[in-house]
Amino acid sequence: MASCERYASHVNKAADENTPLVSRQRDGSIVFQHSPPTALPKGWGSRHTMTFLAFLGFINVYSMRVGLSVAMVAMVNSTSSSPSSFHSHTGNSSLVKSLLQHQSGEDAWILSSGDALEPDTNGTCPSPPGWGNSTSDKPGEFHWDEQTQGNILGAFFYGYMVSQIPGGWLATRFGGKKIFGLGVFCTAVLSLLTPLAARTSLYLLVALRVTCGLVQGITYPATHSMFGIWAPQYEKSYLVVLAYAGGDVGTVLSLAVSGVLCDSDMAGGWPSVFYLFGTLGVLWTICWMVFVHDSPASHPRISEVERTYIEGSIGKVTTPGSPPWGKIFSSSAVWGLATAQFASNWGLYVFLTCLPTYMKEILKFDIKTNGYLSAIPYACSWVVKMLAASAADFVRQRGFLSTKNTRKLFQTLGCLLPAGMVLLVGYVGCDHAAAVATLTLYMGFRGLVNGGFTVNHLDIAPKFSGILMAISNTFATIPGFVSPLLVGALTKQNQTRDQWQIVFYITASIFVVGASIFLLFGQGEVQPWGALDCAPVVVPESPSVNDVSDDPETDEQDKRLRDN
Membrane-crossing residues (predicted)? Predict the structure, then answer.
């Protein structure tokens, strides 16, 4: 039986990242050049089932997280929380096709036809003709100013930050399946209780949101821990990003559906948002606990070929082990990764929590249109994420770029391109179509980071990937509560484009700094303290596994490796 040292030697001997990693054989199968001689299993496998259910899980997670951002617009009586809204001139039907241009140095908006609108004394845009007017929204029942709203939205992230590292440790110790399932289930129950808490006490609502953050904080470390065991070496970008893309799909669904529900009379309007997504979360938990298992070795229905393929690609964990905390916290690769994730999350959370407010207060979209349009950028982000993940795996497999350079390329593009787009938002003026298009491109380009930092935890420390995700996500959660507070402070009683432009400048600067630090410190190879345990791999005797090479010498070497 092959020893641990022999297995490691076989893998490390061909560790050159710049050579092709896969080849197509005579029978059409694909095999890895530098891993134990196992064939790529065909068709749908247990790893795909786990990934798909994780994808559905993150749809639930983000639906429940984002629903409040849209519901907040309907919950709050805006006439008491902000200055009087700008009322557009409605006496000219040519507004539908007019191009709005700002007359520099004067306090007026000028139509291309030469007609002037009322002075824009509040620095906001006219209501978009034909798109829906926010002044027609039903009055909300809560009298919360912008700072209070920022505190409510940011409360989630206080709990979210605290539970990251405990969640990573629990997943490493007890398995990611139970921890992820527990996080989603508890979030669903809290979502169902949100309307009651809001109507009972502001402090109770804040406490509930903190608790919601606590239980959701364990979801990403738990899932990352599972992928460290389940994702084959050269499928991990695609599988991980596919699962996490559920966050974008959940955001799109939540923003679009929440706007419709808030505008309806179902269950009182905005409370139906929490009832719907909470119920779906409970139903998902049942499916997750039935069909998913912590590792290939513990799965009762996995095929022997798939199990061999996974464990032959990445090894397997024989004992949980104690995380090498000192080496982790002193690793420049870890902090380069954490900084990249901080920058990316700042760009995400600013728009995740504050975009609906910007759509209403500045661009003047009504609650239903607000939900639809706020969802468009996340739909674009989902498409780009999937393309970026596939492209990252492709360039690594074909040897075009090393893992390290692949991650740096996608991370840099995913930071600098959105930085340019967010600066443009403030310069498109009140051209509503251009504003929506720019925000869409912003979120789309940000999706490129999914070929960068998103899977870098698995690159540098697959054994402790859950722990690394917990550490970097703790750091990257800070924007979650700082950005709503910052936006609330800058726009309190002053919802103007100029104030929002300050937010956009700050966001662009953070993107640039995050990209620069990752370029300096990011790594792609497994760190000595982060490798999975070596384990013998038993290769099933089948033509698809053994008869894969045209080189007799290679066949003989593989045979000796299996026999020993």
Answer: 52-76, 152-172, 179-196, 241-261, 273-292, 333-352, 416-444, 464-490, 502-522
